[in-house]
Amino acid sequence: MDAAKMKKIKTSSLSASLTKATRLGMNKKSITRLLTCLYLFFVSASTMAAEDISADAMLAMKASERLLLDVRTVEEYTKAHIPTSVNIPLSEIETNLTRLSDFKNSPVVVYCRSGVRAGKAIALLEDNGFTNVMHLEGDMMGWETENRPTNKLGN
């Protein structure tokens, strides 16, 4: 099938779908919103492409052979953090890629408070060649819910 016929089929298929949606009471604005939501869903899902790792599995790894990366703010880290973690806030990941380069092929376990910043950090690391990035299941909220030990800095 030539390109012109394919284009005509795709166009007519899209037109038919829009016509059906309009008959169902969806106006152009509703359709646009729906498509935007679907797009955002798939984009956000792709940022969390890294494998989740449980706290127990992460703790079973030798601390010297993995990096536990806390991407929360310095203030959050100071209040409580997971022992052996290193704090590099999400806003500073790009400027610290050289510092992290020793871990490009080592396990890097990333966490934040609830997972949003961790997802963004994971995408940044993977885009910069990190090959073994994982997301800590439950993040800091899950860690604290399970009453696991934390370290505090300062008072």
UniProtKB/TrEMBL annotation:
- Which GO terms fall under molecular function for this chain's record? thiosulfate-cyanide sulfurtransferase activity
Residue ranges of domain Rhodanese in the record = 62-152
List the PROSITE patterns hit by this protein, alphabetically.
RHODANESE_3
Keyword Signal on entry: yes
Q: What is the lineage of its organism?
A: Bacteria, Pseudomonadati, Pseudomonadota, Gammaproteobacteria, Alteromonadales
Tell me what organism the protein belongs to.
Glaciecola nitratireducens (strain JCM 12485 / KCTC 12276 / FR1064)
For whether the record's keyword set contains Signal, the answer is yes
**Record's superkingdom?**
Bacteria
What's the protein called, per UniProt? Putative phage shock protein E
